[in-house]
């Protein structure tokens, strides 16, 4: 049975990527060796790392603009710490839009003063705060572009002269943005870029080297840049599968093409959420995420019936996060419009049946 | 052509592991989903993580002895930092036996006083120092059990009342040791345990919680223990392949069986190094590593001829590290005696030809 994978992350990746990634476990590049047993210093793997870094900058439109792309380990959670280690001298400004922003703030506080410029916590993070003031003397401004758990997404980033740091874990490569407005972007791979186990950092080199503390080697972006993401053994396979996924994005028309497809999927499901009298959307309409649509049944007594329908039809990962309840349709790049249609059909079938 | 993979790491793993690991990319546990696209919170993956942690403690003989096994990210290099963050209050004692020990010392110095109890640096780390004194007032003693680059291995660990921390990246699961003598063991997976991208930490819980500093969440062993290695998204696939490799070790008879096979391989190659008048071993005999045999040609003019022989025969990764030159035969658990025999045959053929 065909599966429709709405998992919030790790999540669906293209089938063609799985096929090539499976073959490379048996024989990589006709070398007679598995990609799992080759040296990360081998010519073949260095080429993978180079291509992955190159594709990132190309797809984001950041080539020859002073940026470096790094593939590190530890997920976005490690970046909460590394960002502060490298950039926070005295004070930093953070926008709090959910669980991940809150965690980023907590870690940054170990390194200096953190000003929370705004928060939507009082409404269980169901909207993106706007019209807040960013202190001009902060070292940087930090935000989370998409909130996987609550299904909100920043549509317009604030104008500020400060360096902007953005956690784009759950929507990078999904929509066109002027990425050159950002000084540091980070993203756990396991949404639109690849499998769990590697983390992308895109950093404008000029923002580094400005803090006075001594930074441990593994925490130091400058060290990783100087070694081209090979200061120590990288997550070879996760970088390889990310490279395959980036190639796939490029072959399909780049971020522009992804955005068009993602918008169609989002329109389809939000249209049904708004039309269907049984359901209600969780996030404020103007802040709805194109990646993660969060919605609830108005009457929870229908839950058992609805869950049985979609589970029997091979739909995976539609359950909402415990902080929100209800449902969450995570519609990353590789998810087809057809899969979204399957869920919409069940929402309509439920309406007919109850 | 069959390959004989002597790569120092990432390195050879069992062929049966590659086969199962390749299949799981296409369809994991007959779920219709790739292991790369499932949630790390899914029942199927939680079972993988649990089994991997359980197998580690079982194979090391550490079940029900107050230890926890963790699968983290960042490699041994991240552990250089985490060990100091969690255990170094005032002073720590380090034995310097090579590149990795030196790096561990460098990172620890950011957190307190580091006493280098002994070093073999003056002889390019070709031996393991002995009869050194460990200061009784140190917070812990740190050593590296096997030195991949130089081909030395600690045969007898020092007697001390301090907690012992050991980097076992390149020989864990290869030989029987009383692992309960150690309070914290860490190891990058990419030698005997799995692919690059995950790092094993085995820690006796009672040594934690004794430093006064605030530890960032991702650096804090106690946080990772409380979340059973799932504080954030783990390196799903690297943990899975490690679990398969641990299962393989167990099915073959555990560490005892690995050690017997490893000793036969080491005897074979070191016997030839000592017998063959063209070659000389790099490491002091009593400290020779069973994992990594380092050796050089007495007359480097034979190098081209020897290299051509083994490269044409499908031998991979026999070149020595630049710090030592010559050759390095890394003979991890999955390498067959037959592969070692192939190299020994070429060493003998070279002797006949020159």
UniProtKB/TrEMBL annotation, chains A, B:
Give the SUPFAM superfamilies listed for this entry: PLP-dependent transferases
- List the taxonomic lineage: Bacteria, Pseudomonadati, Bacteroidota, Flavobacteriia, Flavobacteriales
InterPro entries noted in UniProt: Aminotrans_V_dom (IPR000192), Aminotrans_V_PyrdxlP_BS (IPR020578), Pser_aminoTfrase (IPR022278), PyrdxlP-dep_Trfase (IPR015424), PyrdxlP-dep_Trfase_major (IPR015421), PyrdxlP-dep_Trfase_small (IPR015422)
Quick one: which residues bind pyridoxal 5'-phosphate?
A: 76-77, 100, 148, 167, 190, 232-233
State the superkingdom. Bacteria
The record's family statement is:
Belongs to the class-V pyridoxal-phosphate-dependent aminotransferase family. SerC subfamily.
- What EC number(s) has UniProt assigned to this enzyme? 2.6.1.52
Gene Ontology cellular-component annotations: cytoplasm
Q: Which residues carry this modification: N6-(pyridoxal phosphate)lysine?
A: 191
What's the name of the protein?
A: Phosphoserine aminotransferase
């Amino acid at each position: 049975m065909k599966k429709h994978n709405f998992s919030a992350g790790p999540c669906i990746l293209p089938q063609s990527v799985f096929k090539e990634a499976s073959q490379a476990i048996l024989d990589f590049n006709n070398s007679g060796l598995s990609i799992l047993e080759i040296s990360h210093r081998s010519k073949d793997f260095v080429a993978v790392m180079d291509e992955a870094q190159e594709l990132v900058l190309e797809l984001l439109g950041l080539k020859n603009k002073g940026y470096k792309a790094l593939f590190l380990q530890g997920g976005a959670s490690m970046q909460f710490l590394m960002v502060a280690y490298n950039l926070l001298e005295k004070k930093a400004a953070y926008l709090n839009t959910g669980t991940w922003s809150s965690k980023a703030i907590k870690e940054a506080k170990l390194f200096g003063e953190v000003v929370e410029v705004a928060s939507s916590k009082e409404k269980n993070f169901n909207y993106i705060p706007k019209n807040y003031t960013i202190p001009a003397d902060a070292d940087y401004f930090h935000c989370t572009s998409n909130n996987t758990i609550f299904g909100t997404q920043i549509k317009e980033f604030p104008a500020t002269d400060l360096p902007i740091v953005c956690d784009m874990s759950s929507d990078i490569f999904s929509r066109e943005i002027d990425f050159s407005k950002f000084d540091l972007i980070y993203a756990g791979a396991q949404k639109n870029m690849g499998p769990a186990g590697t983390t992308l950092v895109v950093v404008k080199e000029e923002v580094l080297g400005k803090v006075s503390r001594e930074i441990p080697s593994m925490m130091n972006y400058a060290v990783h840049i100087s070694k081209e993401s090979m200061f120590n053994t990288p997550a070879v396979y996760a970088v390889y599968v990310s490279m395959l996924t980036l190639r796939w994005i490029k072959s399909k028309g780049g971020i522009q093409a992804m955005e068009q497809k993602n918008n169609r999927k989002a329109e389809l499901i939000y249209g049904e959420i708004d039309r269907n009298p049984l359901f209600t959307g969780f996030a404020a309409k103007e802040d709805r995420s194109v990646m993660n649509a969060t919605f609830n049944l108005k009457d929870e007594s229908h839950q058992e019936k609805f869950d049985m329908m979609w589970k029997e039809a091979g739909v995976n990962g539609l359950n909402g996060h415990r902080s929100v309840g209800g449902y969450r349709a995570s519609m990353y790049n590789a998810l087809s419009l057809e899969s979204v249609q399957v869920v919409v059909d069940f929402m309509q079938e439920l309406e007919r049946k109850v």
